[in-house]
Design goal:
heterodimer, A: 260 residues, alpha/beta, 6-stranded mixed β-sheet, 7 helices, B: 277 residues, 0% strand, globular
């Protein structure tokens, strides 16, 4: 087993989209049970990095390892729960909350598969964690943006992942859902789940975070304890201002000392 | 109602049942992916296959299945690549399919009568051999639509998420496209290639006015599909009108009805909330 391997290990990853270098030699590690937030202004490359990590965007250079396996050879997708950045979970035909969350049980299954009691229990548990147990039969299209986001999180949780990757889960989400989200993630952390969290602003999730990585124009500009909001100005569209070099002692080596 | 015991009516009813079940089952996935008009495109391409069958003296259904499946895979590959050129490429495929079909049919004497059969359907001429073909194809279509419902739902609902789940997304997309092509060739005998897409899409549109879930929508769409297909055959004979067109008109009538019911339901829910505000 890969017992001690880092959940996620990104080394010198570069990504170009449409001929533009969006990520430039980015390093990012998420240890077992660690909660890492990926911060940065719009267009800093946060979402691209996360999409490269799950294989939705090809790497131009560098490497991504999940649980000690190179991304190209990684097959154990049950261990990864991905929550895409999404305003709506609705599609052309109505779908119930349970139907959407049940899709999270598919990783590692055969194509022709029967869902049994264990699957139903896992879906119930996932809905419990996000506080949506009673809404299983509702149509997703009728839910608020925040509730839809919680449904997508439940879908990622339904497979029982060891690493949860969330792309801006708080964007456009009402305060009640943000609190429910913080609560849900707190429970996942207590279970030992590693979490990579793309955030535009810290909000109620701030206290959960072990380490912050700030991206600026496709490069890591800061790694360390959660930066004070007034320094990073993460709630605006301005460029993130990196802290003064001496203050965290990290400017020469973005990853220095924060992980063993 | 004594005409219902006539052998050709019974054949027609059986064909209507099979097509009424199969077409909305696949249509549910197409509507979910917002590819409601894909059936139309495949229908256009299938016409070339039908014409090829006439020209070669083989079964037009067989050649239609092959050409439609190839066309469907081409449509899927163009769609997956995306981009503005994809739109134009699809248009080429659609019009090329119709033009190619008409051209090939006009090469042979008396071809035009045959053409009308496939353009508008002729369910009353379905014989025992046709029924076997329709039965086998419909069973295959239903097998895919029901057996692969979990992964197909995931791919159609959120393709990127399905990819991260490790599902073979491209394979599933191609399976769905080929299944849609089979459905089109099954349904062309019933409603004709010009209206085939209606049987895939309209029952789904009608069903989803009243449903909240995907499985419920598919089941209701299949029920509506069977209802209008059988109803169309039963009613068209005494009225002496084309069953294919009547089936589609009935489906649209059901859609109108469910839309009204849905609108009435929404109003009833909203009135108390509005008066409280």
């Amino acid at each position: 087993m890969t017992g001690d391997a880092t959940a996620l290990d990104v080394r010198r990853a570069s990504v170009s989209l449409g001929g533009r270098l969006v990520l430039d030699e980015v390093d990012l590690q998420v240890g077992r049970g660690e909660v890492v937030s990926l911060l940065g202004a719009n267009g800093s490359g946060k979402s691209t990095l996360v999409r490269a990590v799950v294989g939705l965007v090809p790497l131009q250079d560098g490497s991504v390892e999940l649980f000690g396996r190179p991304l190209r050879r990684f097959r154990d997708w049950r261990r990864v729960g991905y929550v895409p950045q999404r305003i709506t979970a609705a599609s052309g035909v109505p779908a119930t909350v349970r139907e959407v969350v049940s899709a999270g049980r598919l990783p590692g299954r055969r194509l022709i598969t029967r869902f049994g009691a264990a699957d139903r229990r896992a879906v119930d548990d996932a809905l419990d964690v996000v506080g949506m147990r009673g809404a299983g039969g509702s149509g997703v299209a009728r839910l608020s943006g925040g509730q839809q986001q919680r449904v997508l999180i439940a879908r990622a949780l339904a497979g029982g992942p060891d690493l949860l990757i969330l792309d801006e889960p708080t964007a456009g989400v009402d305060a009640a859902s943000q609190a429910a989200l913080a609560d849900a993630l707190g429970r996942m952390v207590a279970r030992g789940t590693s979490i990579l969290l793309v955030l535009h602003e810290l909000g109620p999730l701030g206290p959960l975070i072990d380490r912050a990585v700030v991206l600026r124009e496709g490069r890591v500009s800061y790694v360390g304890a959660t930066p004070p909001v007034e320094d990073a100005r993460l709630d605006t569209d301005h460029d993130v201002v990196p802290p003064p070099a001496g203050r965290f002692g990290l400017s020469s080596s973005p990853l220095g000392g924060s992980r063993s | 109602m004594s005409y219902l015991s006539l052998p050709f009516i019974q054949n027609a009813l059986l064909a209507a049942l099979l097509v009424g079940l199969a077409a909305p089952a696949v249509g549910t996935y197409l509507v979910q992916r917002r590819l409601a008009l894909m059936g139309d495109g495949i229908g256009h391409v299938a016409l070339t296959g039908v014409a090829l069958g006439f020209l070669l003296g083989t079964s037009p259904v067989l050649t239609a299945v092959i050409v439609a499946a190839l066309g469907a895979v081409a449509i899927e590959l163009v769609r997956a690549r995306g981009g503005a050129t994809g739109d134009v490429a699809l248009a080429m495929l659609f019009y090329g399919g119709i033009a190619g079909g008409v051209l090939l049919i006009s090469l042979q004497p008396g071809g035009t009568t045959n053409l009308l059969t496939y353009l508008f359907g002729s369910i009353l001429t379905v014989d025992g051999r046709d029924l076997v073909t329709i039965g086998v194809l419909a069973a295959g279509v239903l097998g895919v639509a029901v057996g692969l419902r979990r992964p197909l739902f995931s791919v159609c609902q959120d393709e990127e998420y399905a990819r991260v789940c490790g599902l073979p997304v491209q394979l599933l997309n191609i399976v769905l496209a080929v299944t849609a092509a089979l459905t089109v060739t099954v349904a062309m005998r019933v409603v004709g290639l010009l209206l085939v897409s209606a049987l895939l899409v309209v029952p789904v549109a009608a069903a989803q006015q009243l449903t909240r879930g995907f499985a419920a929508t598919m089941a209701a769409a299949m029920a509506i599909g069977v209802l209008v297909s059988i109803g169309g055959v039963v009613v068209s004979y005494p009225l002496d009108v084309g069953p294919g067109a009547l089936i589609v008109v009935l489906a649209i009538a059901v859609f109108g009805f469910t839309s009204l019911v849905a609108a009435w339901g929404t109003r009833r829910r909203r009135v108390p909330a509005g008066s409280a505000a």
